[in-house]
Amino acid sequence: MARSHGESSGSRRMMMAAMVLGALASTPAARASPPPQVVTDISKYCQACWRNARLPADRWEDCTHEVFVRLLERLGAEGWTSVLDAEDTQERREFLRAIDTVRKRVQRERKLQALPADLSAPAPLLLPQEEREFLAQQALHLLTPRQQRVLQLVADGWKVPDIARELGTTPARISDEKYKAIRKLQHHLGL
């Protein structure tokens, strides 16, 4: 929903209240629709929750709308008058559960955004070519072929669980082989 810069948060809440009441009027729950002030108060409470949870401000209206939809589905409009009561009622618990569910979903969405293509591939180990060749020569003489393969994959940026899948073994076994291979090289090179 596009907003003009001059539009106040109070007028947005009133618009939200009007939309909710309009939606209520078209449902069977219209017999007991809540007073406009209850809708405005719930909207204000939701806005404070989104702000405290540091959700993106452009998502607040959608989040509040989703809370209203959840309340309508679970409580019906007649239960809305007691959601802001200080007492621990079933309606209040349902309201807080709706807010928490919406908040967690939005926070998960932000975390699960796709990585850019250049970050999704493993990053190679940044060693100069001469050092890599020297270590490869040392590894040929000291390490088993499997240890060499493990260290090569590590140097190419692979993670232990991925190496384990590639070599058909467990991550614990790969970690052990990697540790032993590195210790052999360190001992041989006097590090």
TrEMBL record:
One of its GO terms (molecular function) is sigma factor activity. Keywords: Signal. Gene3D superfamilies: Winged helix-like DNA-binding domain superfamily/Winged helix DNA-binding domain. SUPFAM superfamilies: Sigma3 and sigma4 domains of RNA polymerase sigma factors (SSF88659). Residues 1-32 form the signal peptide. InterPro entries: RNA_pol_sigma70_r4_t2, RNA_pol_sigma_r3/r4-like, WH-like_DNA-bd_sf. This is Sigma-70 family RNA polymerase sigma factor. Residues 136-185 form the RNA polymerase sigma factor 70 region 4 type domain. One of its GO terms (biological process) is DNA-templated transcription initiation. The keyword Signal applies. Coiled coil: none annotated. Pfam families: Sigma70_r4_2 (PF08281). It comes from the Bacteria.
